[in-house]
Amino acid sequence: MYICSPFRLGKAWRRADGLGKAASRTPQSLSRPGPKTYHNHRLFSTDTMKDISITVPVVCYGYDELPDDAVRALVEKARQSTYHSYAPYSHFCVGAAILLDNGETITGANQENAAFSAGTCAERSACFYAHANYPEARFEAIAIAARAEDGDFVADPVSPCGVCRQALLEYEVLAKHPVPVWLAGRNCVYRLPSVASLLPLAFSEF
Q1: Of 52, 67, 87, 132, which has the maximum CB count within 10 A?
Q2: What percent of the chain has pLDDT over 70?
Q3: Are strands 181-184 and 139-147 parallel, antiparallel or unpaired?
Q4: Rounded distance, CA 149 to CA 151, Å?
Q5: What is the rounded CA–CA span in Å between residue 10 and residue 7?
Q6: Which residues, in sequence order, are bridge partners of residue 68?
Q7: Residue from 123, 136, 140, 170 carrying the catalytic annotation
Q8: How does strand 13-15 pair with strand 38-40?
Q9: Position 9 pLDDT exceeds 50
């Protein structure tokens, strides 16, 4: 693949009068007065073009396989938080629990509104409350669970929406270490190594 670049060189000059013919003038001749205008173009090869594969490592656990009591407690708090959801429109109840490095666990649930954009997701209700009340604390782990309209927990784990992924990533950047994410379904729990793994090529610096 080749791309035209408007860098001035002594070769490859092209006329810009629409005739599409190669110009025979040298760069010095451009200073001569005349009715025609010339533009120069350099053709260069993008030899660095290549495919990049991004993979997200996910470990699937049964509930009896969760690694320790702290993780089990965090997942259970996320599940219980779904019962604090206010979801009269979607009937999809989501709960989130965030473990902080001071030992506190903050929970949140989705809160809907007749003006849909005024509502908020469980993950953001939890992370914003956590940082507003414990601004010096850093996130250690996050768990998320959801129940469907039938009131039962969803069979497969669900992941945060794009806005929540971006919001959570901000606090992982503040923590300066990966914050594992536990996504709880009815019969299994997914573990992702970090919030960043949920959002490849994320916007995290400005």
Answers
A1: 87
A2: 77
A3: parallel
A4: 5
A5: 10
A6: none
A7: 123
A8: antiparallel
A9: no
Q: pLDDT digit string (tens) for 154-195?
A: 999 999 999 999 999 999 999 999 999 999 999 999 999 999
Q: What does the block give as tokens for 143? A: 């768990």
Q: Which two tokens stand for residue 50?
A: 């290549």
What is the three-state SS of the chain?
CEEEECCCCCCCEEECCCCCCECCCCHHHHHCCCCCCEEECEEEECCCCCCCCCCCCCEEEEHHHCCCHHHHHHHHHHHHHHHHCECCCCCCEEEEEEEECCCCEEEEECECCCCHHHCECHHHHHHHHHHHHCCCCCEEEEEEEEECCCCCECCCCCCCCHHHHHHHHHHHHHHCCCCCEEEECCCEEEEECCCHHHCCCCCCCC
**Residue whose token pair is 């509104």:** 113
Quick check: is 140 catalytic? no
